[in-house]
Amino acid sequence: MFTMGQFYETIPESLVKWIRAQKVFWVATAPLSPEGHVNVSPKGGPYFGILDTKTFWYLDLSGSGNETISHLYEKNNGRITVMFNAFEGPPRIVRLFGHGTVLENGTDSFNTFVKKHEVRLLPGARSIILVHVHQVGSSCGFSVPYFEFKDWRTTLNEFFARKADRFDKGDSKESMEKYWALKNSESVDGLPGLDIARKTAKEDGIVPLTKMVGAGATHGGQRTRKQLSFGVLHLALVAVIASFATVFLQPVFGELLKSLESTFQH
């Protein structure tokens, strides 16, 4: 029996049909560094599934961002949460908590998965994300508004279909590997992204796209740490100067005060 506000160690059978019927879900990941950026990505389309009560998967389509893959690849990380909302019918929110595995397009693991589970590939598909679920959380969703589903957006699929067509006709600049090298080699915090992207960037001399600018930009948290170090350094310098002032100037001010007192007394 599925109950709101409960946690489960596996995906309840009563939820499987409902999850598969959803039109959109959200994926959340984060780097280990407290100075890194938490990422939330919306995923739309019927490109996901449930293998068993502890394994969820989705087809990861190409885009300018690369956060989920970078966070899953990060050593000692791999944390991921997938969230579903009910926008029609009874209110409901379901979260799948787990650790993720990246199956990159072109690898044996990717090809084996696609063949075994008869996954329909789309132009620009860069990986399959496996979520090894260790907790499932439910909540009411009473404040989530109603939305009526109109249709799927086809823009992304059409964009990469045209790109693939140009590549097939001989335009080598339109290769997905070059696209990934430019946009998917690193996360916004400078964490490594797709393996094939980094390999292609190195071989072809492609400089990965800079994704953040200005005071809030980071590269593996380095900027923030430098700013913090810079601030601490200045505070330490002020403290040292104050200490020296107290030690060396106090006698001078003491004599000055005595002189002033003597003057007023006379």
TrEMBL record:
Transmembrane segments: 232-253
Keywords: Membrane, Transmembrane, Transmembrane helix
One family name in Pfam for this protein: PNPOx_N
Keyword Secreted part of the UniProt annotation: no
Residues of the Pyridoxamine 5'-phosphate oxidase N-terminal domain: 12-137
Gene3D superfamilies in UniProt: Electron Transport, Fmn-binding Protein, Chain A
Keyword Ribosomal protein: no
InterPro entries: Pyridox_Oxase_N, Split_barrel_FMN-bd
Name of the molecule in the record: Pyridoxamine 5'-phosphate oxidase N-terminal domain-containing protein
Lineage: Eukaryota, Fungi, Dikarya, Ascomycota, Pezizomycotina
